[in-house]
């Protein structure tokens, strides 16, 4: 397995970083996940733009053009040129003596790797999710490598034999531990606005655009936990999830069997077209 680390392509065994890397000590870094399909990278520009935005937000001086310029060469070296694969990228503030203050003139640590990966089928359904308090911080718009809140809540979902944890802040549904969530009510699609309480998913943005194209009204407002029972449909979006129909959320059952809502199915179909 090959890893891109600070401008070099090395084997995973030789991909070593200092224990004083601020990613390791503070979780001081940003990551991205995107996929390459057989017909090309899926929304590469949107993912790299988000990475740049996030680095700018936390003041890591790095231009993602370097990653962009090296991506094809890296995939070639990894034997994944033109193959379906998942690409992980991360940039941390670099190696410096442990002090909270940002170090000056330290080069960021840049890493990426890729692994063969097939997207789930587009008609993913029967997702089950638990509801968990959203005890994360107030900058969930930043795709920080510090994911304790996400992994702790996800673990609750795994222990309950479900697929995802859906997070609730002040009685309102924010997002999943690694997905965005949408609801459908009376033909309207409803999802949390892109503010500091959610990650503005690329898949989320794609689905909103698809709704506009299909003339499905979109309302960007948080749904209250106690309104779930009044919703007609619900689905997750995410790079690794695509558009996945939710059968059960907390105690509320949307579908007893293999059923899927009409709007969710339409959006899955439209999303699948983008993969061609
Ligand atoms: N997770 N919300 C959170 C908290 C996420 O971590 C993710 C993605 C999303 C969906 O974003 P997008 O559509 O851009 O993938 C929403 C990635 C896949 C991960 O952590 O592996």
Automatic annotation (TrEMBL):
Q: Per its UniProt record, what Pfam families does this chain match?
A: Aminotran_4
Task: Provide the alphabetized UniProt keywords.
Answer: Aminotransferase, Pyridoxal phosphate, Transferase
Keyword Amino-acid biosynthesis tagged: no
Q: Which Gene3D superfamilies match?
A: 3.30.470.10, D-amino Acid Aminotransferase, subunit A, domain 2
> InterPro entries of this UniProt entry?
Aminotrans_IV, Aminotrans_IV_CS, Aminotransferase-like, BCAT-like_C, BCAT-like_N, Class-IV_PLP-Dep_Aminotrnsfr
Which terms does the record give in the GO molecular function aspect?
Answer: transaminase activity
Its cofactor is:
pyridoxal 5'-phosphate
Matching entries from PROSITE patterns are given as: AA_TRANSFER_CLASS_4
Q: Which family does it belong to?
A: Belongs to the class-IV pyridoxal-phosphate-dependent aminotransferase family.
Q: What is this protein called?
A: Aminotransferase class IV
Q: Which organism is it from?
A: Flagellimonas halotolerans
């Amino acid at each position: 397995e090959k890893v891109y680390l600070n401008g070099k392509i090395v084997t995973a065994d030789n991909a070593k970083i200092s224990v004083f890397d601020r990613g390791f000590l503070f979780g001081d870094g940003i990551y991205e996940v995107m996929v390459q399909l057989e017909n090309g990278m899926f929304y590469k520009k949107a993912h790299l733009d988000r990475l740049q935005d996030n680095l700018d937000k936390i003041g890591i001086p790095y231009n993602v053009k370097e990653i962009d310029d090296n991506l094809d060469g890296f995939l070639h070296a990894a034997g994944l040129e033109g193959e379906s694969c998942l690409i992980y990228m991360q940039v941390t503030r670099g190696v410096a003596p442990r002090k909270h203050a940002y170090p000056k003139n330290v080069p960021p640590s840049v890493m990426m790797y890729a692994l063969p990966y097939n997207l789930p089928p587009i008609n993913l359904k029967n997702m089950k999710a638990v509801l968990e308090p959203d005890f994360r911080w107030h900058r969930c718009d930043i795709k920080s490598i510090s994911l304790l809140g996400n992994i702790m809540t996800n673990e609750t979902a795994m222990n309950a034999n479900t697929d995802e944890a859906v997070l609730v802040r002040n009685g309102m549904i924010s997002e999943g531990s690694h997905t965005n969530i949408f609801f459908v009510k009376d033909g309207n699609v409803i999802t949390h606005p892109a503010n500091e309480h959610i990650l503005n998913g690329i898949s989320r943005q794609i689905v909103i655009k698809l709704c506009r194209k299909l003339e499905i009204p979109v309302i960007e407002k948080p749904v209250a936990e106690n309104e779930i029972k009044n919703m007609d449909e619900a689905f997750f979006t995410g790079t690794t999830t695509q558009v996945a129909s939710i059968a059960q959320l907390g105690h509320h059952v949307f579908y007893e069997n293999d059923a899927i809502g009409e709007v969710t199915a339409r959006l899955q179909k439209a999303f699948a077209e983008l993969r061609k």
